[in-house]
């Protein structure tokens, strides 16, 4: 019984959140065919059996109603196979909770007459006895004219010198009819028309003002000019060509390809204003074609042999080669971003170590001469000796060996 009451309370809480679209109505009659079962307490020695019944009711209000009832069931004794017919007829008083919802729980209590006809362990049971019933149930309205219902009743009656008990549980269809139809609420009358205000002459609105300037006003093709504009008493401004809709004041950069007249148009409630600005566009000057000098052609980005000879086992520079070294100094001044290496080379006459040392001294001698006599920054020049490792001619002939004893300039031009 505690479980049943708990389920009823849960169902009642859920009913609060059910959206109402039907519900229990006042002044209505109802008819409910039901089916279920009945279980007898153990000391009666009767089997649980199916039960059939009908309910006829009337609602005094949406919450309070009454029902007449009739139930029938056939059961068997647990001590034999003989059958017993159960009859109950009486009435219940019902109190409904949240009657305007689709889910309507209720409490019920009533009084009825009861017969047990057949082979019953209690003498005189075929006579009508009084029975008190109490319980709960719910109706779930599928439509306004039909609901599913379920009920649980506890029965208490006196047989065999003792109080006896049974539990009846049924489900069925609740069919309401009759009652006072709902009266539609009349629509509220339309509000009276608002009074028409007399036209008032509009005050004279100030005319818009607009100014547009370009800076610089003359540009070389590909450069930008900045347009600057201001306006007063205006809400809608536009700059043409190209720019389009703009705020009442601001700046923007333009890059026209040709001479262009820009027009600012601003509109307001007081009229329209315009302002123009011209941007003159000139073509850039033709590129300057730089013709490389003979020195640039000779020394830039390729090795160049300097026309310098040394005596055997010597690294001092003879005066007759000063003019050749002047061409190197003039080149380095002409191209101030150039830099590079002075390389010394020998023939194969002496040992490798001897030739390596000699080539280093000759290269360094040339480097120091150029730095000292032509004012060239020392960090622009380096020197390196390669000995006899990079010949440009055979060392088997006198002429070939003369070619291999050389100084090279290797400059990078940026």
Instruction: Note the total helix count.
Output: 5
If strands are numbered along the chain, what order do they take across the biggest sheet? 1-2-3-4-5-6-7-8
The assigned structural class equals alpha+beta
The backbone outline, from C-alpha atoms, is elongated
Average pLDDT for all residues:
86
Task: Report the biggest beta sheet as strand number plus sense, adding barrel if it closes.
Answer: 8 strands, antiparallel, barrel
Flag low-confidence runs. 1-20
Radius of gyration: 60 Å
How does CATH name the architecture of the largest domain? Beta Barrel
Distance between the termini: 104 Å
Give an overview in words:
By secondary structure, this protein is α+β, with helices and mostly antiparallel strands. The protein is built from 5 helices and 20 strands. It has 3 domains: 2-177, Porin; 209-282, Sandwich (Immunoglobulin-like); 294-412, 2-Layer Sandwich (60s Ribosomal Protein L30, Chain: A). Mean pLDDT is 86; it is low at 1-20. The radius of gyration is 60 Å and the shape is elongated.
């Amino acid at each position: 019984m505690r479980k049943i009451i708990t389920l009823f309370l849960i169902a009642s809480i859920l009913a609060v959140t059910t959206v109402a679209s039907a519900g229990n109505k006042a002044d209505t009659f109802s008819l409910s065919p039901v089916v279920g079962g009945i279980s007898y307490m153990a000391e009666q020695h009767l089997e649980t059996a199916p039960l059939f019944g009908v309910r006829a009711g009337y609602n005094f209000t949406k919450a309070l109603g009454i029902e007449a009832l009739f139930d029938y069931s056939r059961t068997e004794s647990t001590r034999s196979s003989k059958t017993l017919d159960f009859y109950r007829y009486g009435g219940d008083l019902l109190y409904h909770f949240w009657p305007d919802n689709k889910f309507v729980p209720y409490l019920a209590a009533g009084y009825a007459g009861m017969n047990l006809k057949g082979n019953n362990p209690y003498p005189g049971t075929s006579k009508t006895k009084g029975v008190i019933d109490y319980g709960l149930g719910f109706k779930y309205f599928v439509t306004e004219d039909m609901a599913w219902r379920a009920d649980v009743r506890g029965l208490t009656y006196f047989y065999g010198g003792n109080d006896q008990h049974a539990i009846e549980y049924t489900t069925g269809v609740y069919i309401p009819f009759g009652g006072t139809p709902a009266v539609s609420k009349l629509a509220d009358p339309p509000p009276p028309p608002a009074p028409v205000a007399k036209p008032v002459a509009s005050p004279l609105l100030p005319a818009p003002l607009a100014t547009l300037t370009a800076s610089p006003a003359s540009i070389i093709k590909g450069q930008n000019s900045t347009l600057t504009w201001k306006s007063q008493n205006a809400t809608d401004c536009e700059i043409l060509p190209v720019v389009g809709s703009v705020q009442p004041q601001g700046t923007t950069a333009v890059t026209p390809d040709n001479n262009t007249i820009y027009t600012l148009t601003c509109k307001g409630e007081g009229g329209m204003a315009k302002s123009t600005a011209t941007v003159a566009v000139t073509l850039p000057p033709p590129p300057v074609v730089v013709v490389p000098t003979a020195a640039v052609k000779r020394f830039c980005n390729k090795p160049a042999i300097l026309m310098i000879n040394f005596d055997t086992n010597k690294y001092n520079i003879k005066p007759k080669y000063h003019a050749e070294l002047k061409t190197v100094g003039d080149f380095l001044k002409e191209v101030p971003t150039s830099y590079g290496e002075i390389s010394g080379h020998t023939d194969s006459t002496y040992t490798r170590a001897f030739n390596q040392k000699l080539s280093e001294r000759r290269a360094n001698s040339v480097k120091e001469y150029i730095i000292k006599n032509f004012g060239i920054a020392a960090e622009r020049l380096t020197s390196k000796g390669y000995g006899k490792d990079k010949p440009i001619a055979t060392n088997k002939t006198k002429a070939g060996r003369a070619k291999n004893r050389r100084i090279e300039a290797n400059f990078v031009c940026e």
